[in-house]
Amino acid sequence: MDFSDTIGVSAAGMRAQTARLRVAAENLANAETTGSSPGADPYRRKTVTFREALDRASGVSSVAVRSVGEDQSDFQMRYDPAHPAANEQGYVKMPNVSSIVEIMDSHDAQHSYEANLNTMQVTRSMLARAINLMKD
């Protein structure tokens, strides 16, 4: 693995974590988004899955987003008979989003992003040192 491969792997990791942060932000933004008619489904939490991405030319593997899917867990029910989406019993389906889970996922993605950024910075520094050594 050479310097450009290392930087490429770090960049791929940063792209993957960016997608993860984007999805967590969307989930948090829609944590209270309900349906607009009685019994309608609310916002459904999105999830990100990753896959291994192999660069066949160099033989280096990295990470990529496989898909952005939907969490199929049950919706919570909240009693609010005045809500436009309330069913006959007065219950409204609420999104299956947990703010705590999304915040923790955001923190984890941020730390992973920073680790990839640090790897990229160290690699660039090593490359600069190698170039300086060749100049002397």
Automatic annotation (TrEMBL):
The keyword Lipid biosynthesis does not apply. It is found in: Bacterial flagellum basal body. Residues 89-133 form the Flagellar basal-body/hook protein C-terminal domain. Belongs to the flagella basal body rod proteins family. This is Flagellar basal-body rod protein FlgC. It holds the Pfam family Flg_bbr_C. The lineage of its organism: Bacteria, Pseudomonadati, Pseudomonadota, Alphaproteobacteria, Acetobacterales. Keywords: Bacterial flagellum, Cell projection, Cilium, Flagellum. The basal body constitutes a major portion of the flagellar organelle and consists of four rings (L,P,S, and M) mounted on a central rod. The rod consists of about 26 subunits of FlgG in the distal portion, and FlgB, FlgC and FlgF are thought to build up the proximal portion of the rod with about 6 subunits each. GO terms for biological process: bacterial-type flagellum-dependent swarming motility. It comes from the Bacteria.
